[in-house]
Amino acid sequence: MHRRSFLGSLAAQSLLLTGTPYLWAMGEKQNGENYGVTTESSTKVTELAGMSLEEMRDFHLKDLWEGYMPYWDGTIRVDEKYGGFMPYLKEDGTHVDTIKRMYYQGRGIWVFSYLYNHFGKEKRFLEVARKGIDFIYKHCRDENGYWLSEVTREGKYLRPSENIYGDMYVAMGLGEYYEGTGDEKAREVCIDTCHKVTERIVSAEYMHLGGHGAGNEPGTKRLGTWQHFLSALTPIARQTDDYGVKMMARMCVINILERHWHPELGVCFEQLDDQFQPYRPDPTRNNRAISGWHSIQAAWMCMDDALRTGHKANFMTALEMGRQSLEKCWVDGKDGGESGLDSISNPEAKPSITSRYSAWGALDDAMVFTLLAIEHTHAPWAMHWYKKVFETSYSHKERMIREGLLHHPRRLFLAPQIIGRMIERGGKVSNFCDT
Q: Which residue, 236, 17, 189, is CA-closest to 119?
């Protein structure tokens, strides 16, 4: 892959994105059809954050091709010798280490499969994804069908399957690869991986070891678990219509919207006890925290799944959960202070920016949430929040987490699709919420 080929394809990619049908796209029905135009409202959205819809769509596309993709140019991060991905670099361009973590192998397979599926069917992207899949098939699955958390660059064992998010991302990557290729092995391994993830996360012994922070006592329920798993399950449910996958997705949505989300407090608890109840205050550790980032991701992922199933009540519940999460967890920097979306230690606490870079990553998901809200409701608050999040994000472009293989490229993929649908409707709201 070469920088020139990435940058030279911007105009062509814009035409491909807007001029050809998607496969299964985020925000569509189970059958792959898109929602139509409402007959119950005459409102129109013609601009976002001071740009026309066309300008905003093309802004995201340009940032994808000129801002993000050159970061993956050449062999520094994409391992063309062995297959797979090594995202961590020092400032001088050398690797922190050459360990291959399943957390990033699955994400990388997803990114390049998605590029192939939705941005012109370019074989170079499919080849990167295929080499990644060949690598993990050969080196990274244990005798139980779980995915090893870490291997060497060459594929030698380092750590067992401790970080279950790696398994979730492998499922997401294999599902996307299957969508574009019809590869039956990818579909079978993807669905089997989903069942093996479920087997562990519903276990009374599950302790959340090795992923997204410290582990927990057995039985603890984590918002991040359901939310990240749902992000893999919803597209697979669209692609395969597999009943088991659909039931796993339903489990995640119920756990998020009916258990973690507490509308009377306006928060979505990150941790619940083994009975799905909020923990009491504990002086030895923070077990009542609310993650603004996880909450906003959970909101748009539940909305996306509701669009798949046609479940308006779930969509509206998730919409309100996301709106209140923004209100609760947003920091407006004053006198040069930091702005952004962060966490709070308990429902009564005020947010504070603990890491400007983690807060910047959350802005990618906040943009996806607000765009989905605008597309299907035209709510003024959603327009206000999109403008605020967009302008905050691009006030410091250098803080964007471009070495990641999920949040940032996902926003650059999904935003043009959502805005493209808005353009196709002539700026009118969709008919999803029609009574």
A: 17
CB atoms within 10 A of CB 386: 21
Nearest to 244 by CA among 279, 192, 204: 192
Place of tokens 């083994």: 274
Output the six-digit token pair for 279: 């923990």
76's tokens: 């520094």
Q: Which domains does the chain have, with CATH numbers?
A: 78-201 (1.50.10.20)
Assess whether pLDDT exceeds 50 at residue 1: no
Name, in order, each residue with C-beta under 8 angstroms of 272's C-beta and a sequence gap of 6 or more: 220, 221, 259, 260, 278, 279
Closest of 289, 274, 286 to residue 325, by C-alpha: 289
Residue (of 87, 358, 409, 360) closest to 213 by Cα position: 358
Q: Specify burial of residue 219 (Cβ count, 10 A radius: 0-12, 13-18, 19+).
A: middle
d(CA 420, CA 53): 8
What number of other Cβ atoms are within 10 A of residue 256's Cβ?
Answer: 26
Closest CA to 324 of 354, 351, 287, 305: 351
pLDDT digits (tens, 9 = 90+) for 349-398: 988 777 777 678 899 999 999 999 999 999 999 999 999 999 999 999 98
CB 419 within 8 Å of CB 53: yes
The encoded tokens of residue 103 equal: 């957390």
